[in-house]
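Human: Not sure, check this?
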Amino acid sequence: MRERELVSSAYREETVDVQLDDGRKVQALAYVVDRAHWQYCGTLSHEDQARIIAQARGGKGPNRDYLWQTAQHLTQLGIADPDLDHLSVRVRDIVDNGLA
């Protein structure tokens, strides 16, 4: 994960406290975005994010594939992320309609 997530200083590796479904509290390794980093784009609208993701490509392939795989895996794990799901659907619409 370090090799994949820490390719730039846009993310920091942190140990965070999390609560499991059974109520236990444990520490977990997490990669947290540095909102002060020049690559941070969290202020973009969802539509702008979708357009960029639909066209962008990184060293490991199209960003849209990473988005779709992440959204699918979270769904399989029973983890709800409405924003990510909406973004995934919008990127699919852009790609399927030849707008990317």
Remarks:
- The first strand starts at residue 11 and ends at 19.
- The two ends are 29 Å apart (CA to CA).
